[in-house]
Specification:
Blueprint lengths: L7 E2 L2 E2 L5 E2 L4 E6 L2 E6 L1 H7 L2 E5 L6 E2 L4 E7 L3 E5 L4 E6 L2 H4 L3 H4 L8 E5 L11 H14 L1
Antiparallel strand pairs: 1-2, 3-4, 4-5, 5-11, 6-8, 7-10, 8-9, 10-11
Length: about 140
């Protein structure tokens, strides 16, 4: 089995087909809905997630603004929405199993689904290669 080295950052995974914010959230845009979560790189730096604070459905979020928080054994961190829109679904599984963010950040650990109000915001987000470069630079600085 071959793994592309460009998609590995010290064991953190960056997936093709997603867009990434410099604040370490990912967006998967499918049809009228965009799914948002935190990246593998972010969860790795947070450590074991023990609590997730998420908003209700129907709430509007603004690109670059906080919509919730993640508490880990190391720290509490705000989670920002990379795009603006209305929250149409919240991952209720995270209330009882916040560790899904650690074990499956891109699948079972997603946080919210948003109906984008300004789809052009997606164009300003990073692709997988740019995000990998950002993470490599951050790792080198630490």
């Amino acid at each position: 089995m071959e793994i592309e080295l460009s998609n590995l950052l010290e064991n953190s995974v960056v997936l093709d087909g997603l867009k990434y914010a410099t604040s370490h959230e990912w967006v998967k845009h499918e049809g009228p809905v965009a799914t948002i979560g935190i990246t593998d790189h972010a969860q790795d730096h947070l450590g074991e997630v023990v609590f997730v604070d998420l908003p209700e459905t129907g709430v509007s979020v603004s690109g670059g603004s906080s919509f919730g928080a993640v508490e880990s054994v190391k720290a509490s961190s705000d989670i920002n929405s990379p795009i603006s829109g209305e929250i149409v679904e919240v991952n209720s599984s995270l209330k009882g199993k916040p560790g899904l963010i650690n074990t499956s950040p891109y699948e079972e650990g997603w946080m919210i689904k948003v109906k984008p109000s300004n789809p052009s915001e997606l164009e300003s987000l990073l692709g997988p290669k740019e995000y990998t470069k950002l993470c490599d630079e951050e790792n080198a600085a630490h």
